[in-house]
Description:
This protein is an alpha+beta fold and 335 residues long. The chain has helices at residues 2-19, 160-191, 208-222, 230-249, 258-265, 275-290, 297-314, 327-334; strands at residues 24-29, 37-39, 44-53, 57-59, 68-69, 72-77, 81-84, 89-99, 104-107, 112-116, 122-126, 131-135.
Amino acid sequence: MIVIFVIGWSLSLTIATAQSFDAKVSFFYVPSSEDESYHVGDRITLRLEVRHPADSQVDLPSLPEGEPWGDFEVVSQTAVESARRGDNVAITHKDIVVTVFEPGQYQTPRLLVTHTLADGSTEELAAPVIQLDVTSVLVEGDSELRDIKEQASLPVPPIWPWVLLSILVALPVAGLIAAGGFWLYHRFKRRGDIIDMPLPVPVDTRPPEVIAYAELDRIEALNLPAKEQYKEHYTLVTECLRRYIEGRYQIPALERTTDELRRTLLPTSAIKDERRRFIEIFSDSDLVKFARFRPTLGDAYEIIRKARRLVQVTTPVPEPPADKTPQKETEEMAT
Length: 335
């Protein structure tokens, strides 16, 4: 009975000890070395590691990268990683990469780790200080200056295989091209001097105003402003008016800019009164087409109405037929 009691008491003490222990902070080189010598500019990896109960939490400090940390400069640092070791043990760690630019004896600044226990209480644990021996890359007593080494020369491979390969590939291709050209030459030579006459261009014999009205109706039916195709809309309207000017006044309006057309229309007495309205429409269209000006939807529809009005006022009014002498007056004169 006493033996059973002793065994039970030992087991309970062992379990209690395993479930409750103090957190331990370690700070060491990676890879670990007791006497590690580094050179100026080397990147030195230091690992901050905490062994703590699994039901507690550890907050590891974050150092500003690219800024001084004591005599060191922090190059980078990894994210905090945590892993369980057994039922009640956890290991939390992170790596810190530092460097120094002068030889000498160094030691790491103080690092504090915050440990939050399962009951909510917190404690701060200090990391051990690491001693670092940083040496120069120069050998002691070596002060002789040396010239820069010459640029290494690499052997140039021979190019004759590439030249030969190019000739072997080019000869068959040139032969095929020559044979094809010879065949085409004799084929067309046998056909004789046949001249393909261009197809006659259909001539629209309708009056200019009728053509313009029909084109404006077609443009309006496209409803391009509703699709935000303002540039295409203004281009079609101005081309319609330019063709109307060509048909009405025999002026090559399609081949001229707005400024050239302004000077051309100036001496034309037949269009003198409406010249300003034509140029106003052409100038507004140039803003939309070339200056990427975005008109309102109302302005885009209004240009159709303005174009119709211009065609209407510039269409000559047909002369009335000559008045015939009334039959009654003719009879009186005959009497």
